[in-house]
Amino acid sequence: METAMGTAMRTVNERPRAAASDPHPGPPRILELGLMPLVTAAFPDRTTFLDTRLRWADVRTRAPRSGSLPVRLLRLARRVAGIGRTCLVQDYDIVVARCVGPVNSAGRPLAVHAALSLIGLAFRGLVLFAARGGRVRLAILDVTDHLTIHPRDRAFLRRCDLFFKRELAANRWNTLETVLPRGACAGHARQDPACLALRAKLRPFALGIEAAALRPPVPAAARSHDLFYVGSAQGIAFREAVNAVLPRLAARGWRIHAPAHRLSRDAFAAAIAGSRFCLSPGGVGWDCYRHYEVASLGSVPIFDTRPLAGIEPFLHGREGFYLDPQEDLERALDLLLRTDDGEVDRMTAAAQALVERVYTFDALARYVIAETLALGPLPRPIPPSAEEALVTAEAGHRQPSLN
């Protein structure tokens, strides 16, 4: 299934690049920087990806790269020079990069903390240099587990055109708490033009999943379990409550599959596919890869409370269920498990369609670019018909503003 936004993005992507003499150049050119490409895979013909992992070893195999030290130094110098040349020329219209986020150096020596901090500072400087001036738009992707934006990304928020935030708070002022201008409180921020401008840049985002993970679902009547859950509590109150409730549900006669040990990838996938429902509580953050994995593998996810703004949320009773923290957990799960097989099949299909339409990596990449183009004409214009189609499609796709 595909939204109008996706159709418009595919149309623009398939348009041939205009000749150099054409007053309306082809689709926007994109530069993506970082460790993991997202937009590059969706728009390979018009995206340049700069891999900033300047390492001696192969990233996938961790094996040392071949060649003597001078040869490896020369290769590294060429990569650095190529990155610098690309950013200097600015032969692109949109820059996409991930945020810096926390240093993540807890328990390590101070020297390691300092080195990681400097690496983050250098990356931030590179991204801002690549997006310098008024003719290039900057889209920042924040996939950290935090409801708030880390102070190290304050410069990104100020300079970017859009800030795509996973774990974006339903009240977006909560997400801005740590990066508001000096001396600003939440009450003042809602009336300050500068603070309102920061809030207007926020867009919801998600972890997503690869499209190859989607599989045809097993009919609900043929599934071997009513409810599947595996996971450690790790001090998370909801998970601790779930672990206490599952044995009581099994005593009621429900087919509960809750192994105490870690499963292999294949066993985990088989358990999801063979279960009518799967519990998918949040961890440190609410947004979780398991949410999309459960739907992709053909089961109905059951979530805990969602305190976030989503691109297009799973709706209660349509693509999944949410548990009310005010209700008795055992009673609530017992009622949900009584859902008939026909309804389970319908919800499974709806959940898979939602993931395919919104939460695959390809769909997320197209969403980022469509939102960026919806801001208005680029300084280096793209064909008017393509731009109008994108803006119209995105206007219809955009969720109502919260707060």
Automatic annotation (TrEMBL):
Disordered: region residues: 1-26
Protein name: Glycosyltransferase family 1 protein
Gene source species: Methylorubrum podarium
